[in-house]
């Protein structure tokens, strides 16, 4: 890419169609962008498709979207299990689980597969250094963090995270895409584990888990305290359930690795709940029961 030249995005690739990936796909496809989504196998493709369809159906029921617009949105989304199909993408957003090795493998593969010399590569990671993902490619100046918030269709914020080597043109193209067609608002963070929001949010969530673990108060009382006493839209334990306990644990571990601060250390209760498969709302049970 010639420095200073922006890339407009008509063909987006999204890798991973879980909680975050499906939200990113939905928002982009609703904005008129052609989206190709990669999931790991046919079952995961179907689960991802159902997540997007379910969310669009809810929007239709609530009168926020017409049935025609839902169908047109779905018509702009296609699925694959093969990263080799991403050759014509102009921007690819990786949104898989917080696993550094898998993410670097994906970036290295994308670098070989995506044909356009101007294409951008982004990660929705909450905590893994963008520099490491950039160095897995031959074009680190075209790699940037684009970090969305859950639920993606609702939360207005995107954190933009350039690495030390990200070019100004890449920053401007990413900003133009998320503030233009996607209608989000942007803050910029240095490439430090947790970026701005999780660096503030995660210690608070971990404190709530420690409070529960030590018998200080019940889950309901901790949550009601912050909802009724501080006007938060949901309490910290319910928010952990929304984000996913596996994600919170992975983000806390990355932040602890980076800063070695006790306030980022993961409480044993969080680890035991992840071991037990109690991951939160996405699988029915976390600190609260959703079944
Ligand atoms: N998809 C689309 N729309 C959704 C939605 C979803 N998954 N969930 C809720 N909504 C919409 C609803 O349709 C509704 O819209 P209208 O008012 O226009 O009808 C609106 O959001 C409110 O929803 P509800 O009435 O069902 O429920 P609520 O008032 O309790 O709001 C909530 C739900 C939006 C999730 C709210 O509780 C909230 O904002 N919680 C805090 C979320 C938060 O802090 N997210 C950041 C997490 S941190 C993160 O993501 C970063 C990371 O890296 C870990």
UniProtKB/TrEMBL annotation:
The answer, when asked if Cytoplasm is one of the entry's keywords, is: no
List the residues marked with site Important for catalytic activity: 147
Query: What positions does the domain 3-hydroxyacyl-CoA dehydrogenase NAD binding occupy?
Result: 12-191
Output the superkingdom of the source species: Bacteria
Asked whether the UniProt record includes Cell membrane among its keywords, one would answer: no
**Which pathway does this polypeptide act in?**
Lipid metabolism; butanoate metabolism
**Which biological process terms from the Gene Ontology are attached to this UniProt entry?**
fatty acid beta-oxidation
List the Gene Ontology MF annotations in alphabetical order.
3-hydroxybutyryl-CoA dehydrogenase activity; NAD+ binding
Where does the 3-hydroxyacyl-CoA dehydrogenase C-terminal domain lie? 194-290
Q: Which UniProt keywords apply?
A: Oxidoreductase
Q: Which PANTHER family does the record cross-reference, listed alphabetically?
A: 3-HYDROXYACYL-COA DEHYDROGENASE FAMILY PROTEIN, 3-HYDROXYBUTYRYL-COA DEHYDROGENASE
What NCBIfam families does the annotation carry? PRK07819.1
Family per UniProt? Belongs to the 3-hydroxyacyl-CoA dehydrogenase family.
Which protein is depicted? 3-hydroxybutyryl-CoA dehydrogenase
**What organism is listed for this UniProt entry?**
Frankia nepalensis
């Amino acid at each position: 890419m010639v420095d200073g030249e922006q890339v407009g995005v008509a063909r987006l690739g999204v890798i991973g169609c879980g909680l975050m990936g499906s939200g990113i796909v939905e928002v982009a496809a609703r904005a008129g962008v052609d989206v190709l989504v990669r999931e790991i196998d046919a079952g995961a493709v179907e689960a991802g498709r159902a997540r997007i369809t379910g969310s669009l159906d809810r929007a239709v029921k609530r009168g926020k979207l017409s049935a025609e617009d839902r169908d047109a949105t779905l018509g702009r989304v296609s699925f694959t299990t093969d990263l080799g199909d991403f050759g014509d993408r102009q921007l690819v957003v990786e949104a898989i689980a917080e696993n550094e090795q898998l993410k670097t493998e994906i970036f290295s593969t994308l670098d070989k597969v995506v044909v356009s010399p101007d294409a951008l590569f982004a990660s929705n990671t909450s905590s893994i250094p963008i520099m490491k993902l950039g160095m897995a490619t031959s074009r680190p100046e075209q790699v940037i963090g684009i970090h969305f918030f859950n639920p993606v269709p609702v939360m207005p914020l995107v954190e933009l995270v350039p690495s030390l080597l990200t070019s100004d043109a890449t920053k401007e193209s990413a900003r133009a895409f998320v503030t233009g067609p996607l209608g989000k608002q942007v803050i910029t963070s240095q490439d430090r584990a947790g970026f701005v929001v999780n660096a503030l949010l995660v210690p608070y969530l971990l404190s709530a888990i420690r409070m529960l673990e030590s018998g200080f108060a019940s889950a309901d009382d901790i949550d009601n305290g912050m909802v009724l006493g501080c006007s938060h839209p949901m309490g910290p334990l319910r928010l952990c359930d929304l984000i996913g306990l596996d994600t919170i644990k992975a983000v806390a571990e990355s932040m602890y690795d980076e800063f070695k601060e006790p306030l980022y250390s993961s409480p044993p209760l969080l680890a035991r709940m992840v071991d037990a498969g109690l991951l939160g709302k996405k699988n029915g049970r976390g600190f609260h029961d959703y079944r």
